[in-house]
Amino acid sequence: MTAFQVRGLTRRFRDTVALDDVSLDVHDGEFLVVLGPSGSGKSTLLEILAGLQRADAGEVRYRDRPVDGPRPEIGVVFQDPALYPWRTVGRNVGIGLELDGVPAADRRRRVAAQLAVVGLAGQDERYPHQLSGGMRQRAGLARALVRDPSVLLMDEPYGAVDHITRVRLQQDLLELWSRRRTTVVFVTHDVGEAVLLADRVVLLSARPGRVAREFSIDAPRPRARGDKALLAYESEVYAALREPAGTHSRQ
Ligand SMILES: Nc1ncnc2c1ncn2[C@@H]1O[C@H](COP(=O)(O)OP(=O)(O)OP(=O)(O)O)[C@@H](O)[C@H]1O
User: Ligand 1 in contact with 12 (CB < 6 A)?
Assistant: First the structure.
């Protein structure tokens, strides 16, 4: 089944055309990576999928219903997890459940379980400033997962953590995804990250943001950085990035 159907999406900010006639499908259970240079409209696309902003033209449907606002089954993870500093990690992660009116005992149980899933078991009572950047990012992921979303939208979630932490977080995300098979749409401008994670990479061109190319990453899983099969895909994507703008052909 198709999770998202995106048709003819256009978004302008004054003179800037952030997205120009973007169409794509996201399939159920798929790990889709949206790759593109700065200003190619990746974040704008993700926010429209999340129902956080509207397109000027075109349509987004999720499971065949128009997306007209945020929904609990669509979880979002941003580069900055934006945890409330005055709330404990547990109360940050459980915030969506509070809004959903889930009783406190149930909430605590679900939060503790989700913290364990992301590698933060027993950290409920700590405060965000007591966590490392990588741990805060894990807490942001737990906050999205705790509502049991059927799709996760991730906007450069590892863009602000150091390289070694990033490699670890990527590996953990891959393990999590292979267990849950939640549909993921993941935005990055890191080619290595894109081919490591993706079933399919959609490459956007910059200003205006258009779908330039698509790559199916048919490398076997489990995967790890440095796998030979992935390096071949990386070379293919880098070659596409070297093509002058406007000469991209769709595969
Ligand atoms: N709220 C806004 N007001 C004005 N212009 C905006 C706004 N949001 C995005 N833009 C412009 O739209 C274009 C696409 O921005 P967007 O943030 O979606 O790109 P991106 O590919 O995610 O970039 P980056 O990789 O740098 O985060 C850019 O030129 C940006 O300046």
Answer: no
